[in-house]
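User: Can you predict the 3D structure for this chain?
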Amino acid sequence: QNDRGSGSGTRGRVPTTAMALGRTLHAKSAHMDRLGAGSRASASRMTVVLTRERGKNEKLRREMEKRGWNALEMPLVKAVNGPDVRKLPTALREIKADWVVLTSPEAATVFLNGWQEAGEPDVRVAAVGRGTAEILEQQEETRLVPAFVPSVANAKHFSAELPGPAGTVLYPASAKARTELEDGLRARGFAVERLNTYNTITDVTHAKELVSAALGAEAVTFASPSAVRAWVEIIQGADKMSPTQVVACIGETSANACKKLGLRNVYFPEQPGLVGWVNSIEEGLQQCTQ
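Assistant: Here is the predicted structure, written as structure tokens:
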């Protein structure tokens, strides 16, 4: 999981799960409905740390500004080419895959570059979620509009729900991506050609001078396990965090990384994406700063 769903301006609530102090807490939708204008006012002027790669925080920042929160941008990771990126144009021309599956906006961006270099062949694309789909739809090219998006933006649902019959799948992936998606597809009879076309690496070049301010913020956000690991490294251990600091993740994969590394007050949406992510920040602030 590392999909960055959209929904700017949407006020709808997405169910949120909190992993706090080793316990798993399922927030009820009724509780979420009670988080109205009054709760937003009490959470105003809070500072939230944004750890995504520079240039990829704008949608989240806009949603925060609507709620009166301050953003502290502290990029901890960046995307770089993976070992198989040069193989992608040839694969797109020669494999003639039944599906090209894309599991993040970065994967979609790298795919578009390879597709153009390949001469823009006909493809049938499946996208893990709305954030990934939007990257393709912005091209205003009918052949790139995703033909399939799973009901939940994660590898489990993606592999189980991709329409058959089982054929050939081209999977341009992050070098750090787990094998759950491809394993699930192969179990259903699909032939999967995985190419590690990009990688997410730690980049704390401009972050070190922000550590003190970031530790004083009310919340910190993560969109990938790589960012979680970089955070724990740069602050020199999860125990340096305030017991009330909220950790809000875009989805369960990042949240599990937080739990593994000992972070507390971890909130994430059951359906990965921007709307649920913002709701998770909001609920965490309500729960932990009262």
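The chain has twelve helices and twelve strands. The longest strand covers residues 191-202.
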